[in-house]
Amino acid sequence: MAIGFLAGMKIATRCAINAGLNPDHIANLMIWLLIGGIAGSRIWYVARFWNDEFAGQPLSKIFLQRAGFVFHGGLIGAAIVIAVFLRVNKLPLWKTADTLAPGIALGHAFGRIGCLMTGCCYGAPTKSPIGILFTDPRSPATDHCTRFGPLHPVQIYEALLNFALFATLYWLFRKRKFDGQIFSIYLVAYGVSRFLIEYFRGDGAGHPAFSSAQLISIALIGAGITLHFLNSKTAPAAQKPS
């Protein structure tokens, strides 16, 4: 997570310069983004798995358990922080969102590598050669492996998709035609990739019917398409990089 945050901040400040924004404002925003993202992702995880993992347990488990973050919750927490920060500092909404989008994808890619290392957000059982086994007793995936065998390395799948998304968004950033274009593309692309990844999840998230994450992904896709259409009609033309 630390590597992902630092890499995302580097990309965001570089994009800010190209967009004509003060990179110091974006760096400060990234600090608050980290706080809001971690808080939101942890709150979402605890609420979702309260009966399974936290009911009747000491409160210290909520704060000290090594694994347990949900990206959608982090995205919501980060969005709240961004809205407040932009209002206080009077920064342009969609231009700032475009500036942050490539770095969010890059940071998320590193975060999924962290999920692989800690054994959370694990995959469904698979008999394919790419299946992996977790053996660390502290890993949430170990018990699943003991019962079902090798699992899909969904953390690697999603990390690779996010690295590809970062590269695409960063390339498109210099070619954007209006403010909000890059952020709307991020919402659609991430929503599609997460929707598909859910079919390979084995941590209670993936099942034949739509999961809660898939429903949120559908909402993100719809929001991205709507924002792209509306901003293409009303948002200012993007400032070209110097």
Number of domains: 1
Largest sheet: none
Overall geometry: globular
Quickly count the helices: 10
What class, by secondary structure content?
mainly alpha
The poorly predicted ranges are none
User: What's the oligomerization state?
Assistant: single chain
Task: Estimate percent helicity.
Answer: 55-70%
Q: Assess the beta-strand content as a share of residues.
A: under 5%
Cα gyration radius (Å): 19 Å
Overall pLDDT, averaged?
86
Report the end-to-end length measured between terminal Cα atoms.
Answer: 32 Å
- The number of strands is 0
Series of secondary-structure elements, N-terminal to C-terminal: HHHHHHHHHH
What report would you give on this structure?
This protein has one domain. Helices cover 69% and strands 0% of the residues. The protein is built from ten helices and no strands. The two termini are 32 Å apart. The mean pLDDT is 86.
List the helices and strands and how they pair.
Layout lengths: L1 H18 L3 H26 L1 H5 L5 H5 L6 H19 L3 H26 L23 H7 L5 H20 L7 H17 L14 H23 L8
Helix pairs in contact: 1-2, 1-6, 2-5, 6-8, 6-9, 8-9, 9-10
